[in-house]
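Sample entry (106 residues):
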Amino acid sequence: MKRRIGPLVVLVAIAVLLVALNPTMDDFKKYVENKARASVGASGVLGNVIGGLVGGLASAGAGAGFDRSNLFVASLYTSKLGDEVQQQYLGIAKLFLPLKSGNSRP
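Predicted structure, serialized as tokens:
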């Protein structure tokens, strides 16, 4: 009987941890802001100006247009244009994994 309880306790502990670390929409907004700032590769004064503009725009609209589906142990963030999915991210344990980008074709 002890052999069956050990793995079950570990699985329950992992599930509880994933539920506790399930990212919120605010976490996703911070991720989008950081991603936008990192994408600006220019350096010097021009880079600082562009980085400030991109950072400001990212802060204003970060996560806008995305819907969050709570899966309890993870979250799915989806951006659609009409009925077509443009971008999709899986958020799990405060990490975000891109599933579909608007630039990729199936």
